[in-house]
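sry for the spam today, last one i promise. struct tokens for design, 543 residues
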């Protein structure tokens, strides 16, 4: 027996038209070097439709990839909806990746057009000649008037405002909810980054999860400020949730300094502000004497939230940080550390420990811990460790055009996250390690393997291993453990100077220690566990 319900596709067009129809007077605020810029959902919707028709005029193909290299702004939000609602695919480019990774991503995704903020053009322009599929570069002026457009062979350069002004509003229609809406690439901790393609359906359902009271609970009454970049895992779903509910949006632009963020929270009466732990570490020192009483939730993810940081916010604002967990592969929200009613009577220390977990799975997501030795689910006892695996309607089932997909998924279709975790009896996930030894610094990943390879390219280095050690601001920073070739001498400064220009500057190890040999496992691999134990109390030098 079949039901009698209508078959209506779950697409982003519904969110867009809802904001346009019901919330035309609600504000979208963008922070700029010249001050705040204000628009309304009504004005934003008109510009978004005009941008959609501009993509038609440019001849961007029916499922063409529309790339962005931009800050959190109202223009970026226009692209967030103009591309998918016109049937195309939004592709947000991470401005912090290595240049060669940006080139790989653009070419692998076959981007046809790249929209770039003027203030970021200096990073992107040297790479444009390496792009094989890009036909247009559209510059979004955010640095004031008076700038000329650059020129490139084979790539037409256009100005965003002229492009939007020239065309009529487009009619948006997407009939297939399984159609691709957007794509993001992982941080590429080992090898090239891997692409994840989100459908209209998955984004629609993930957006609804952001509205659950037992998740972030975004409503029309909120003023939402995604400090997390719009190029980082869909801005954690907050941009879509804001539009879907008609919540006011505050987009901070390029200035993410603690003072600027507190200014926006105070002036705009922000209720939900989300960012990685390092952001909130800096903001904490700015809270003295400031009125942030409008805040009702501070979602935080990207890396584990230190218990001390969460408790410091509880002391300063009356509320702890709300820890969430997810990945590019999970859209990203998969769990949120809400405190259930049955646990609320525990002691403050116990509650602080609970809030320091990654939380229970949100409705719609299944999480399990699998013992890597037996392949069987580990018990939920808060002690048994295993690989964290995820499944759900907004969890990717594969990577885009990538032969490495098979190793990341189980035979029964669960995503292997690469995190080692325990599950409490109440179903709270607590991540305790990472299977690939990546260093998580400020919510971004640093590949220890790639960093080791660069160090070992030095002619005086015999072996090198990189581990993450605790850092008071960045959560973790890399420590290089180096073995010098016999008969050679080497200093820390020589190693760091050798790395200059070979790696992203923020990947540079905070310290270098010289050891006699790198400990090995029984099969000859570097034993990072032994090094972590040995240098667990290593104090990094201060700047």
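last one done:
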């Amino acid at each position: 027996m079949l039901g009698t319900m209508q078959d209506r596709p779950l697409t982003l067009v519904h969110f867009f038209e809802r904001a346009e129809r019901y919330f035309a007077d609600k504000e979208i605020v963008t922070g700029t070097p010249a001050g705040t810029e204000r628009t309304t959902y009504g004005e934003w919707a008109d510009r978004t439709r005009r941008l959609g028709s501009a993509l038609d005029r440019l001849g961007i193909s029916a499922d063409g990839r529309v790339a962005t290299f931009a800050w959190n702004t109202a223009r970026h939000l226009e692209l967030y909806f103009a591309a998918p609602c016109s049937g195309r695919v939004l592709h947000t480019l991470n401005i912090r990746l290595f240049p060669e990774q940006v080139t790989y991503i653009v070419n692998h995704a076959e981007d046809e057009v790249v929209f770039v903020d003027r203030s970021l053009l200096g990073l992107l322009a040297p790479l444009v000649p390496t792009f094989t599929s890009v036909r247009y570069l559209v510059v979004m002026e955010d640095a004031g008037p008076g700038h000329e457009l650059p020129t490139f062979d084979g790539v037409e350069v256009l100005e965003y405002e002229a492009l939007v002004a020239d065309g009529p509003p487009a009619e948006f229609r997407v009939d297939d909810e399984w159609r691709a809406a957007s794509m993001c690439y992982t941080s590429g901790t080992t090898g090239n980054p891997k692409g994840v393609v989100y459908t209209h359906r998955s984004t629609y359902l993930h957006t609804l999860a952001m509205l659950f009271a037992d998740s972030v609970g975004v409503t029309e009454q909120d003023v939402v400020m995604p400090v997390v970049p719009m190029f980082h895992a869909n801005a954690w779903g907050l941009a879509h949730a804001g539009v879907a509910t008609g919540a006011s949006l505050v987009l901070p632009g390029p200035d993410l300094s603690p003072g600027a963020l507190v200014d926006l929270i105070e002036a705009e009466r922000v209720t939900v502000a989300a960012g990685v732990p390092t952001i909130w570490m800096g903001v904490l020192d700015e809270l003295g004497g400031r009125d942030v009483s409008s805040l009702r939730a501070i979602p935080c993810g990207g890396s584990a939230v230190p218990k001390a940081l969460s408790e410091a916010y509880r002391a300063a604002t009356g509320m702890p940080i709300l820890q969430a967990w997810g990945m590019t592969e999970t859209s990203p929200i998969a769990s949120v550390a809400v405190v259930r009613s049955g646990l609320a009577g525990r002691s403050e220390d116990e509650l602080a420990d609970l809030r320091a977990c990654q939380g229970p799975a949100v409705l719609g997501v299944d999480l399990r811990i699998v013992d890597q030795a037996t392949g069987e689910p580990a018990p939920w006892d808060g002690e048994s460790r295993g690989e964290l695996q995820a499944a759900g309607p907004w969890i990717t089932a594969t990577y885009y055009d990538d032969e490495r997909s098979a190793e990341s998924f189980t035979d029964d279709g669960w995503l292997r996250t690469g995190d080692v975790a325990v599950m409490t009896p109440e179903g709270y996930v607590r991540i305790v390690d990472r299977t690939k030894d990546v260093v998580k610094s400020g919510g971004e990943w640093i590949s220890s393997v790639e960093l080791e390879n660069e160090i070992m390219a030095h002619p005086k280095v015999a072996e090198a291993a990189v581990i993450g050690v605790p850092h008071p601001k960045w959560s973790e920073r890399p420590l290089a453990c180096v073995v010098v070739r016999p008969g050679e001498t080497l200093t820390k400064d020589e190693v760091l100077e050798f790395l200059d220009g070979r790696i992203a500057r923020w990947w540079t190890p905070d310290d270098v220690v010289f050891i006699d040999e790198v400990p090995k496992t029984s099969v000859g691999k570097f034993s990072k566990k032994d090094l972590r134990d040995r240098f667990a109390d290593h104090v990094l030098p201060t700047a």
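The chain has 15 helices and 24 strands. ok im logging off now
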